[in-house]
Specification:
Layout (H helix, E strand, L loop, with lengths): L1 H47 L2 H5 L2 E9 L2 E6 H14 L4 E9 L5 E8 L3 E11 L2 E11 L3
Parallel strand pairs: 1-6
Antiparallel strand pairs: 1-2, 3-4, 4-5, 5-6
Length: 144
């Protein structure tokens, strides 16, 4: 009887491991389902140099870094600054280099933007209601 109980206990431990693994995989796949649509739209807006489309994904306040200029701006101010950046730096190409998520359920993307200069881009998305919004956006000159 003791052997039977020991075997049952071992099976229960194994089942718990399987349940935890399935839960982790489900969580990861949920991010994969939610993140690509938003990420693809943001990447497309950057690649086109379309500040208006990009601003659709801005949070009410955005921490913005463009070269040496940085600060927290309203959605409208950030859109104008990005529009100015794209006007001065027409996009030739944009490639997503890395995407991920952090423990606080924030999502991020690092990319390379090519214009007359090369820029490293970074944006941080946080969940707001049913969608993700850009809370931080960076265009950093790779040459500086």
């Amino acid at each position: 009887m003791a052997w039977f109980l020991k075997q049952q206990e071992t099976q229960i431990k194994e089942m718990k491991k399987v349940i935890v693994l399935v839960a982790l995989l489900f969580t990861a796949s949920a991010y994969a389902v939610m993140f690509p649509g938003v990420s693809e739209n943001i990447a497309a807006a950057i690649k086109l140099g379309n500040s208006k489309e990009l601003a659709k994904y801005f949070a009410p306040n955005v921490e913005l870094v463009i070269g040496q200029k940085s600060g927290t701006y309203s959605k409208a101010q950030a859109e104008m600054m990005v529009k100015d950046f794209f006007a001065k730096n027409p996009v030739k190409d944009y490639k997503v280099m890395h995407q991920g998520n952090s423990q606080d359920n924030s999502l991020y993307t690092i990319g390379d933007l090519t214009s007359a200069k090369s820029y490293r881009t970074y944006y941080l998305l946080r969940k707001s209601g049913d969608s993700y919004l850009i809370h931080q956006l960076r265009f950093e000159d790779k040459d500086e």
